[in-house]
Amino acid sequence: MKSSESDKLREMIINKAKEFGATLAGIGRVVDLKTTPTYEKYDRVPYLDFFEALPEWPSDAESILVFALLHPRTEPVLDWWDSKPGGTPGNRVLIQIQNKMEDWLREEMDIKAYSLAYHLEKGGVFLKDAAVCASLGVIGKNNLLITPEYGPDVRLRASLLDVALDPSEPLDFDPCAGCDKPCFQACPQDAFRSGSFERKYCRIQMRKDQENARSLPHDPKTVYVRWCRACELSCPIGR
Q1: Cα separation of the two ends of the chain
Q2: Distance CA 162, CA 130 (A)
Q3: Of 42, 53, 61, 224, which has fewest CB within 10 angstroms of its CB?
Q4: Distance (Å, rounded) from C-alpha 189 to C-alpha 209?
Q5: Contacts for 181-184 with beta carbons within 8 Å, 24 or more apart?
Q6: Rounded to an integer, what is the distance from CA 70 to the centroid of its chain?
Q7: Element (H, E) at 144
Q8: Which residues have a Cβ under 8 Å from the Cβ of 121 and sit 6 or more positions away?
Q9: Residue 194: C-alpha distances to residues 122, 141, 145 (Å)
């Protein structure tokens, strides 16, 4: 496929994802995804004790479509985890977008799309790394994806495509340069005490969040986990 044709198709796919409800969307190459820092580090230090190997992706997967949904601080319910399919209201919206995109790509563009699960252990990908490959943002010192438009207040979903496309234009974006790192001070478990993110301390807070799960008056039959977002909500980018 000529570069001009690839660019046109890429932008058509991105625009369709936004039409279906995505706040942001981008395209990356699968070959680049396999060389991102998290994948390389995971081979040496897997952080899921029960997880033995990274998932095998379809052999014909050439590109990855990553799309994001804005989770504004005024709508915290989008992040509340429950036992219903999809986990959170926000992720259920992303699944709907993903399903619409898969149908459109197959029926209108003759492109096969492989919908990826959110969780790595269920066949997903490292979504933050995928989003960087798709030029949606960069991974900041708070270990979150930071986008130029909305900071870290987005949630992600991705699909593999069986067509080779040129990736989205790279970003010239360094949000943490000169920042006084309010995320470091905001963490209730001091997970940045070494100067960088340490997952083991974040896990302590996650366990506390799970222990504090409870139902709400408007929905007494559903138990909600409200995960800590202190590092995210303290980030000044996108405000």
Answers
A1: 40
A2: 16
A3: 53
A4: 12
A5: 181/141, 181/142, 182/234, 182/235, 182/236, 183/140, 183/141, 183/142, 183/230, 183/231, 183/232, 183/234, 183/235, 184/141, 184/142
A6: 11
A7: none
A8: 48, 50, 51
A9: 31, 12, 20
Q: Where are the beta strands (DSSP E) in 36-153?
A: 63-70, 113-115, 138-139, 145-146
pTM of the model: 0.92
Give the model confidence (pLDDT) of 141-179 as tens digits.
Answer: 999 999 999 999 999 999 999 999 999 999 999 999 999
Distances (CA, A) of 12 to 20, 66, 98, 104, 151: 12, 14, 15, 11, 25
In contact, 77 and 216? CB cutoff 8 Å: no
In the chain, the amino acid numbered 162 is D
CA neighbor of 133 nearest in space, from 16, 37, 46: 37
